[in-house]
Design brief:
By secondary structure, the protein is mostly beta strands. It is built from 1 helix and 15 strands. It has one helix spanning 89-105; strands spanning 7-8, 13-17, 34-39, 42-47, 52-56, 65-69, 72-76, 83-86, 118-125, 131-139, 145-153, 160-165, 170-173, 186-190, 195-199. The strands form 5 sheets. A 5-stranded antiparallel sheet has the order 9-10-11-12-13, with no helix packed on it. Strands 1-2-5 form a 3-stranded antiparallel sheet, with helices on one face. A hairpin with a 6-residue loop joins strand 7 and strand 8. The termini are far apart.
């Protein structure tokens, strides 16, 4: 059974999502203002309020009666008879949708768009050695290829991270990760016209 939730917008207005939010259905559910249409000999219902129903914050279970006149909307709570005049009803609905987005995206993964990296290939190599290797191939903001190589010891999550940019002829490592000297003694990359290599000595 779906949990019934009333969201508070402000001291006067709260709102809920009806069962027709973002969809049409053969049942109108708990929507109180719906339109009907026939399709393939079936009746479909859609919400006239875009799936958002406004409620009285003082009496959250009570849905406002709404009267639209001359571009404004008047909300009236049947219990307390308080009236609220709204000059832009669509703006109120948009505010409700923004609040719903806060709930939906509060656990979203944050991606760095300032780097403009576009994922292309992700691969995890199986090796018979004491190391694990994982690679990502992406495209940077200039349209050039960037290959990210992760290397770590089997059984641990600690890793060193290398960035290979073939078009820019660059080989770098991420200093925020494990020091490459703790994993490797040397890395060598062969490109079509040159070889890039770095040697590491943990004792230095």
């Amino acid at each position: 059974m779906n949990e019934k939730v009333i969201y508070r917008l402000n001291d006067q207005i709260s709102f809920r999502k009806c069962t027709l939010f973002n969809r049409a259905s053969t049942e109108h559910g708990n929507c109180t203002n719906f339109a009907e249409r026939e399709e393939n000999w079936k009746t479909y219902y859609s919400c006239n309020y875009n799936g958002i129903h406004l409620h009285c914050t003082k009496h959250p279970a009570i849905e406002f009666d709404i009267k639209n006149r001359h571009g404004t909307a008047t909300l009236r709570c049947p219990k307390c008879n308080e009236e609220i005049v709204i000059n832009d009803y669509k703006q109120i609905i948009n505010q409700c949708l923004k609040m719903l987005n806060i709930e939906e995206f509060k656990t979203a993964k944050l991606v760095r768009l300032d780097d403009w990296y576009v994922p292309e290939v992700h691969k995890k190599e199986k090796t018979t050695s004491e190391y694990w290797i994982e690679t990502d191939v992406k495209t940077d903001k200039d349209g050039d290829t960037i290959i990210i190589v992760y290397v770590g010891h089997v059984g641990t999550k600690d890793k060193t991270q290398f960035f290979i940019k073939p078009e820019k002829l660059q080989l770098t490592s991420d200093h925020k990760d494990l020091d490459p000297a703790k994993i490797l003694s040397k890395i060598e990359i062969t490109l079509k016209d040159r070889t890039l290599s770095q040697k590491y000595d943990e004792s230095l």
